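Before relying on records like the one below, remember that each one covers exactly one chain. Contacts with other chains, cofactors or solvent are not represented anywhere in the record.
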Amino acid sequence: MKLPFILLVLCVTAPSAWGWSNHTVGSYLALQALPALREAPQVEVEPLEQFLAQQYPAVAQLLDEQEQFARQHFAQYPPRPDDLKIPAEPGDNLQHAFLTALRINPQIHLAMVIQPLPGRDLLEREHLKANQVMVEQTLSPWNRQRFIHVLTGEKLPPLAVLASAADEPDYGHDINLFSDNPGEVGGRYGFGPQPFGDSRFQYSSQAPFHMGFFHESPVVYAAAGFLQRSWPHWRAYQYMGLARLAFATGHSYWGYRFLGWGLHHIQDLTQPYHAKPLPGAGLASLLLMEGKALAGFDSDKHAAIQRVATRHMEVEKYQAAWLRRLLKAGEPHPMIAAYARLAEDADYPPYSVDYLREVVSAQAVAESAAFDEAIEQWLATAPATTDFSASNQVSREDYDHPQLNRQLLQLLGHFGAHSRIYVRAGLAP
């Protein structure tokens, strides 16, 4: 039996495939207490081309080693076409050669910016507009963010570089990389057709790199093998290797920036809707639903599609708006404390190349049903969760929803712990 049901669910949810809205804010809160960051010297901003020019042989060797490892280690990994290999000798466009060898979107801006925490903007500094930082099609979720322009040679705190970079993979890194996507690179990159997501929404093409359904039933995989074609764990591996190389060769700015890119994918998988296509639905109910749809009774299927899409989007709006208010108020709060709950770090094994799959994703799947149920109960009674309603009046949301809040605080604690574990691994000699 085919399961187009699952595909349709993903088609609806994938346009909002960012996890926890703004990764920079969460990264600041999760990482600010790490001595390795707090005590590290400021780093000097440098262009990517400078790092690549000075370390070209080492970068080429690393990417070749990573490619061989990926072919042997990651299931469903599509081998990189040989013509994408970095040339033996550097050419005129180092950045383009590097980005295509990584198989990320070569049109990304890679702007020199940092993001401040909400309420801590530096108004005297030059700010870049969103369309100078990210590809145009991804603008809508970031209308509140501030991008402070930084200059080559400027000294910056490592935490600011790392936390700001953690948001970057949502700026277009993984858009239009599949053979049936618009543009030229999809036909060259070797990923084949987009396995899930809705082609009507360009942004959704990043979903297979930001979601990972690693813990489904063999029956589901047998019927819907496309669910196995996702690679957030590979991205985390790529960027970890680049970060370690940059640190080892004295390019700390790019070390922190690459580490932030990889951190993004770890954080995405702490969001249960990035790890489970249909939280709360068992295999039997899923098969029954699809069977009814095939018989011409598809109302349950369409209701489930809408339910998942709504819950995913609304809970992220709720959490983001609540956190923004708390940060602007500047007072202690359990949500802010959850990100920095250092005691939880000892509950997990050391970081490894399989950590995202075997620890982060598995945990999110295990908690997905309870999270989904809490969202259901909240939505039954909650007002709008945006900061302002359609009439520009302040929302009535009081964020007094104990069951949902308990789930959120638990998940954000996981977000913080897994972030620190990944960063510690990247900073280790």
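The chain is about 50% helix and 5% strand.
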